[in-house]
Design goal:
By secondary structure, this protein is of the alpha/beta class. Helices cover about 35% and strands about 25% of the residues. The strands form five sheets. The protein has a seven-stranded mixed β-sheet with strand order 4-3-5-6-7-8-9, with helices on both faces. Strands 10-11-12-13 form a four-stranded antiparallel β-sheet, with no helix packed on it. A four-stranded mixed β-sheet has the order 18-17-16-19, covered by helices on one side.
Length: about 450
């Protein structure tokens, strides 16, 4: 049961905040809470209507798609089913990097520049309009309310993106205070910082946690090791995202914090693709996102088989993501969730993971602290970071035409700043980077015993 202040924030303060930013998230969230109960036929028909509009807008206002549709003879107004979408080639990071300006709608307003976290090894710059932001906020908000918590409930966010950590100005600090959101930096997991994190969690007594599964599980493990009890704080749920959630992580987070763990799957570029409900189903946000699972040749995989996740986000008219390859693998589930929601389900999501690395002074650092050094630079198509020892880290880079010789020293200096000035950073430019023997890619690998 939300308290009076939470109800004030969720019903008055946050809607006012969204209105001032030009977002329609309040209306969209209310619509989503209705559409989650729709049957599959009504949901599919809504998808077709919105898809047709997206493709029509793209044909009229987005140079890349206007040229593509003309080249292949695709007519958006003739679209009659979701299967017609397969007539279009897929979109990937390489195409976006090559056609960044041509993917912007010529009538787009209020576009904001974004970056992916880069844990895929392929950092990406792209743009998001207010429509997409409104839908992202509404989707996350709906999933939050599934668990009996709401905007305004005390929340601790364990995060590492420089977008979040670099924006702690007065306005943001005031907003976070009003919304009762407390940010803990996920990059440096030293024993001293972990002690502080545990103390802050006990002091704040949040109703919900949000963060990387690796970071929350590390805090939980530390609390257990020092004998600090955190399962008596009244935490309702721990939301995890941005990495694959392993069962051992789910167990330790749940045991130590005394709450269920809610998995969320998505990314900055692809959007919020699926959220876990209290009954355990990973519900696809099908009102906004069309999900395909394809094999290596790009064909749909049979029901029950694993395939690469390809998404079409229906709220991206300003910078369309149409048949966008995520690089992740999953399986469709044909079950119906016990919660009663009719949104389709996805399972066995093999998301990307990011290791921790160890600095020369023994500090444990989230691998994304190194990833962000690379992803801030243009001209890097792919990368892999291998911490061979405390004294040596290898960096493999696949450059493109925008790579500058000075980037090498920038990377070396940034890594040494985080790992230690005496650490050798061996940077090698290569033509390609092979996956692990399992077939999966790992982009931050530490061989140092943690």
């Amino acid at each position: 049961m939300s308290d009076i202040y939470t109800r004030f924030v969720s019903s008055i303060l946050f809607p006012l905040h969204e209105h001032m930013k030009g977002h329609d998230s309040v209306k969209i969230r209310k619509n989503l809470e209705e559409s989650q109960w729709w049957g599959p036929d009504r949901l599919k028909q809504t998808q077709i209507i919105r898809l047709k509009k997206l493709l029509t807008d793209a044909s009229a206002h987005v140079p890349y798609y206007r040229n593509l549709f003309k080249k292949i003879g695709f007519k958006p107004d003739r679209l009659n089913s979701l299967s017609d979408l397969t007539a279009l080639p897929m979109l990937d990071k390489k195409i976006i990097r090559s056609h960044l300006d041509d993917l912007k709608a010529d009538n787009a307003k209020g576009l904001s520049r974004f970056n992916t976290g880069g844990s895929s090894g392929e950092p990406l710059i792209f743009y998001i309009g207010k429509e997409r932001v409104s839908h992202d906020v509404a989707e996350k908000w709906r999933a939050t309310r599934w668990w009996g918590v709401d905007i305004g409930d005390p929340e601790i966010v364990v995060w590492g993106s420089p977008i979040e950590l670099g924006a702690q100005d007065r306005v943001r600090a005031t907003r976070d205070k009003l919304f009762r959101t407390h940010l803990l930096p996920a990059f440096e997991m030293s024993r001293q910082n972990l002690d502080k994190f545990v103390e802050q969690i006990r002091r704040i007594r949040p109703k919900m946690l949000f963060g990387y599964p690796s970071a929350l599980s590390r805090i939980a493990l530390h609390a257990r090791q020092i004998g600090c009890v955190l399962n008596d704080l009244g935490i309702s749920v721990a939301f995890v995202t941005s990495e694959k959630l392993y069962e051992e992580q789910r167990k330790i987070i749940g045991d130590v914090f005394g709450c269920p763990v809610a998995n969320g799957y998505g990314s900055r570029d692809a959007g919020f693709i699926a959220h876990e409900c209290p009954a355990g189903g990973m519900h696809i946000t099908s009102e906004d996102i069309i999900v395909e699972l394809v094999d290596e040749q790009g064909y749909a995989v049979p029901q029950g088989e694993a395939g690469e996740i390809v998404v079409t986000h229906l709220a991206t008219r300003d910078f369309p993501f149409i048949r966008y390859k995520t690089g992740d693998v999953a399986v469709f589930s044909n079950s119906q969730c016990l919660c009663g929601r009719r949104l389709p389900l996805i399972s066995d999501i093999q998301g990307r993971t990011t290791d921790f690395v160890i600095a020369k002074n023994g500090t444990q650092i989230h691998g994304l602290a190194l990833v962000y050094v690379i992803r801030s630079l243009p001209g890097i198509y792919q990368f892999k970071i291998i911490q061979e020892s405390i004294e040596l880290t290898h960096v493999l880079l696949v450059p493109d035409d925008a790579y500058l010789p000075g980037h090498t020293e920038t990377i070396r200096a940034g890594f040494q700043e985080r790992l230690g000035q005496g650490v050798k950073i061996n940077i090698k430019l290569v033509e390609s980077i092979s996956p692990e023997s399992s077939g999966k890619y790992r982009y931050v690998v530490s061989k140092v015993t943690h």
